[in-house]
């Protein structure tokens, strides 16, 4: 029987009732993948993160959804950086996840933790047309500004640019079309909808996991994929403020920075509390 310290933290906010909730579990010895998956399913959040070798030069992170382990995700890493700083008494400069080494930074003036996307952006075309995308989303075709694109800077996702931010809140997913055209694998369909607004970007992230439709209130990996899409469009040296989770009443604020061909994602955290979990591996 292991006693596992855990922390509960809201990511991409400095408020107690906003942002994306995250359980952060400290592993003093290794834990099986089966146990990490079962614990994540029990917590039933969008992701749960496990920190191994917290005092090392490059702590190892295991990021799980209730369905599977992820190679990379922004919200769990940003939250884990806060806990690592608390444990170590100083910020770390890098962590490791399945996608590779992730370089990190901390701005003490703004209390924002930053991570650099771990992979060079790649893209692939989807099978969606503008008209089919509009039908899948239940919106007018003129609201779809570009052909949907699969982007990957560590965690592949389908991105769609929408003309008006208000339209993003009005979508009505056609689930059969969503399952057919937005499937990353047989168990997981995903889409990131984004639009430019006066003070930055407004976004929503929806997923269908084994038939259960979920919405994420703050998705750092999707923001990083958006950065990859912008880089491939020739954009560089810019900064965006991304608003997500508003319709869920869990508003998250993410920061996207393109700097010398590098993609950086940032956000604040709000620590809610801590506890212990007794677990037999």
TrEMBL record:
Q: What's the superkingdom here?
A: Bacteria
Identify the InterPro entries for this entry: Phenazine_PhzF-like
The text of the family note is: Belongs to the PhzF family.
**What name does UniProt use for this protein?**
PhzF family phenazine biosynthesis protein
